[in-house]
Amino acid sequence: MDYHIKNAKSVLKKNGKSFYWAGKLLTEEYINRASLLYCFCRALDDIADSGKENALNQLNSIRLNVRKKLFSKLENLYKIKYPTFFKEPSHKAVIDLIDGLILDQNNVLFKEQRELIRYSYHVAGTVGLMMCDAVKCTNDEAKLFAIDLGIAMQLTNIARDVLEDANMGRRYLPGSWIDNISPNDIVIAAKTNDLKKIKIISNGIKKLLLLAESYYSSGAKGFFYLPLKSRIAISVASGVYRQIGVQLQNQKHNWHNGRQVTSILTKTKITLLSILKELFLHRLKKEHKSELHIDLKGLVNFDK
């Protein structure tokens, strides 16, 4: 096995447990490509979250090298292997992804939903686009749905990590949803059991998860464009990640007592249900809802 593929699979297994679980259902070629994609994105994310003073300079340097297509420099300077299977939309998506990671280098305080959706595109909708290349899906309509699935997963991720992000000075929940409670006040509310502020944040998370559901629903419509094995794998990945939000909802959006974890038993149930659904559900081609991309004008150039 190629060294880069072996290493990428190891990184996926260690750090992307939900995706590694779902990836077992892909063909060997596609799991290899998906692993390289994950490893690439993980390397960028690790730089962004390193907390080092030069992280911003590194991200700007990487962005410049990607824009100029100097991919060998990425490997020589940063030990980052650029996936050779990326097509042009993915090339732009990588730049958009790095722009999102650069945004994270400052204290994040979103005011409105538009900022939240654009950010979610930058750091996760872009990965949906890249995943299309990983599984050789070239249909532009399918890519619109792939973006939505990425956004949905990021919204779930934000719902899970409200307290963790607040500890880093970040608040992705729009201030207009939660009375502009600051990250520091979120941390204090959790420590002091401030029931009023805890409820306000919980209501914000509830709204966030409802928004995520609209993007999960759209993302699932894109499964139509995938062959069966890929469709099942993506469906499983979507279901396992969505389960985090389901568990938050079942616990009345309790965000201040630790992050949600999906058990092996739950993953197994979701996997079996996804397999049955994709085997017996006859998916029909559906139009993409353009209103889901209203906030992405100027970013998704092939949107209709």
What does this structure look like?
- By secondary structure, the protein is mainly α.
- 67% of the residues lie in helices and 0% in strands.
- It has helices at residues 3-15, 17-23, 28-48, 55-67, 71-78, 88-103, 113-134, 140-160, 162-167, 183-192, 195-221, 228-250, 264-280.
- Helix 7 (113-134) crosses helix 8.
Q: What is the topological layout?
A:
Elements: H1 3-15, H2 17-23, H3 28-48, H4 55-67, H5 71-78, H6 88-103, H7 113-134, H8 140-160, H9 162-167, H10 183-192, H11 195-221, H12 228-250, H13 264-280
Helix pairs in contact: 1-2, 1-3, 2-12, 3-7, 4-6, 6-7, 7-8, 8-11, 8-12, 10-11, 11-12, 12-13
- The whole-number mean of residue pLDDT values reads 94
Give the overall shape: globular
Structural category is: mainly alpha
Counting copies of identical and different chains, the oligomeric state is: single chain
Contiguous helical run count: 13
Kindly provide the radius of gyration, computed on alpha-carbon positions and rounded to a whole number of angstroms: 19 Å
State the separation between the terminal residues, measured CA to CA: 41 Å
Order of helices and strands: HHHHHHHHHHHHH
